[in-house]
Design brief:
The protein has 485 residues and is an alpha+beta fold. Among the domains are: 119 residues, Uridine Diphospho-n-acetylenolpyruvylglucosamine Reductase, domain 3 (2-Layer Sandwich); 117 residues, Alpha-Beta Plaits; 99 residues, Alpha-Beta Plaits. Helix content is 37%, strand content 20%. The chain contains 17 helices and 18 strands. Strands 15-12-14-13-17-18-16 form a seven-stranded antiparallel sheet, sandwiched between helices. 47% of the residues are buried. Bound molecules: flavin-adenine dinucleotide (FAD).
């Protein structure tokens, strides 16, 4: 008698475990989860599981282990590296955490809250704000990114300079491991030396070591004062000197220090009908500075920043500067910054790289790498903008005029990226500053990563996921999938 395929038994067991709300094989329901939001990656899946509790996640993972079914965890599907998209084999199940969206506890006095993995970042911001608190991490995808996805990618954003990445916000986590066991590390302990820090191992593991089901997060007092400035100056090396000066002078109020070359400002002004350059003259480089404080009012903080920038001008650290007079002007400055990617996209195809090098080397890296790329690939234009204070810039290479979108990226664009990553590696940097490796950079990490670090990561992966079922092919090349019991 022919045996029933293991995947059919799995499908019927998963359906009875999770019920109609928690498991589907319906194509229409699956489609949005089979492609990443930028449409760069698409795949197929056996079905989508949407458990409602940690216990259900655990049961489902046990079932997957029993039938050797690969699992692709998915939160808001806003990731940049194709990490939440299944491959084209159709053998995996998507494990959506979106139904687990409860804020389990909220302790305003302690400045802590335990969120389930599916809580949307913007919801957490709103809940915190209603209690006079804030969660000090934000990013453009906040309306869809989930806590589980943010923890799993160790997301960054625009406040890392002062508050750190997601790692710094997580006080504890709960995670379902590959055999279905539940790691309960939610308690926030300031001191805990009972061996390895498993929480930190799981943060940033992109769903390859476990399924994050909840996180205990730190909250800070909300902002009462804000000062935003737009500065013009002649060189990126000068921007680093200004960063150090402002950092020393404004103490721990400095929250953002974004560098923007004139090319980017011009493309935004051309692209956005409402956009105006903040300074009357144009400068080779611009800096957007944001200072915030939980004490005092905006007028005092703005005066303080104004004095600091006046002194910087006296010392010839900058050419011109303007402080936003009110909230709407602050927002207008940030709109210029946040519109760069869209404005550059309107110019034609480009290869985009999320890279970091040590902060102290970044200006020299930019000055060396851009001409090297433009010489090697005639007609291209290199631009770098973003978080100078974090040693992390968006390094975009625009295609020569007339290049055909889709074709250029697939051909010359790939060589451009390989060269950018070679340069970053030679400068001691990282080919992924904040977006993760996903499926996008697996080959490049394998090519350029430190062999000792890669070997350690493979050993950890093998120890925690011996069957190779958790998000296979992401972060590391896939391990052969082995049979369960
Ligand atoms: P998904 O995209 O669903 O998944 C991302 C990865 O995490 C995948 O590998 C997935 O398998 C894994 N995963 C998801 N949930 C879990 C879980 N519960 N357990 C285990 N693994 C899981 N990112 C930045 O770092 N900085 C930025 O400034 C930034 N800006 C952005 C701006 C825009 C407009 C957009 C759309 C995105 C931006 N991002 C940025 C990327 C994205 O928002 C983050 O990577 C975010 O952390 C992804 O969260 P998500 O819930 O959408 O995860």
């Amino acid at each position: 008698m022919p045996s029933i395929p293991s995947s059919s038994v799995f499908l019927s067991d998963a359906a009875s475990l999770l019920g109609p709300k928690g498991f589907t094989t319906d194509n229409d329901a699956l489609i949005p989860s089979l492609t990443d939001w930028r449409g760069r990656y698409s795949g197929l899946a056996l079905g989508m599981a949407s458990p409602a509790s940690t216990e259900q996640v655990s049961q489902l993972v046990k079932l997957c282990a029993k039938h050797s079914i690969p699992i692709v965890p998915q939160g808001g599907n806003s990731g940049m590296a194709g990490g939440a998209t299944p491959d084209k084999s159709g053998k995996a199940v998507i494990l959506s955490l979106r139904r687990m969206d409860a804020i389990r506890t909220f302790d305003a006095d302690a400045g802590q809250c335990v969120c389930e993995a599916g809580v949307i970042l913007q919801t957490l911001h709103e809940v915190a704000e209603a209690s006079g608190l804030r969660f000090p991490l934000t990013l453009g995808g906040k309306g869809s990114a989930t806590i589980g996805g943010l923890v799993s990618t160790n997301a960054g954003g625009t406040q890392v300079l002062r508050h750190g990445t997601m790692r710094a916000q997580v006080l504890g986590i709960e995670c379902v491991l590959a055999d279905g066991s539940i790691f309960n590390g939610l308690t926030a302990l300031k001191k805990d030396n009972r061996g390895f820090d498993l929480k930190q191992l799981l943060i940033g593991s992109e769903g390859t070591l476990g399924i994050i089901t909840a996180a205990n997060l730190r909250l800070l007092p909300s902002v009462s004062a804000r000062a935003t400035a737009w500065v013009g100056l002649p060189s990126i090396v000068g921007a680093r000197t200004l960063l150090r000066f402002v950092d020393r002078s404004m103490g721990d109020t400095l929250e953002g220090f974004e560098v923007i070359p004139d090319h980017c400002l011009s493309s935004v002004v051309d692209h956005l009908p409402s956009a105006r350059a903040p300074l009357s003259d144009r400068h080779a480089w611009n800096v957007l500075i944001e200072c915030v404080s939980g004490d005092g009012d905006s007028a005092s903080l703005q005066d303080r920043l104004q004095n600091v920038l006046a002194k910087a001008m006296e010392d010839q650290l900058l050419s011109d500067a303007v402080i936003a007079a009110n909230e709407s002007q602050s927002e207008a400055f940030w709109t210029l910054r946040d519109s760069i990617s869209a404005a550059e996209r309107a110019l034609g195809p480009a290869m985009q790289h999320d890279i970091s090098v040590p902060v102290e080397k970044m200006p020299e890296f930019i000055e060396a790498a851009i001409p090297q790329i433009e010489r090697t690939f005639p007609g291209t234009r290199g631009i770098a903008f973003g978080h100078l204070g974090d040693g992390n810039v968006h390094f975009h290479v625009l295609a020569p005029t007339g290049s055909v979108a889709g074709e250029w990226e697939e051909n010359e664009g790939k060589n451009v990226s390989a060269r950018v990553y070679d340069l970053v590696t030679a400068w001691g940097g990282s080919i992924s500053a904040e977006h993760g490796i996903g499926q996008m950079k697996v080959d490049e990490l394998d090519r350029l990563g430190d062999p000792v670090a890669l070997s350690l990561m493979r050993s950890v992966k093998h120890a925690l996921d011996p069957q190779g079922l958790l998000n296979p092919g992401k972060l590391l090349p896939p391990l052969p999938i082995t049979k369960g019991d």
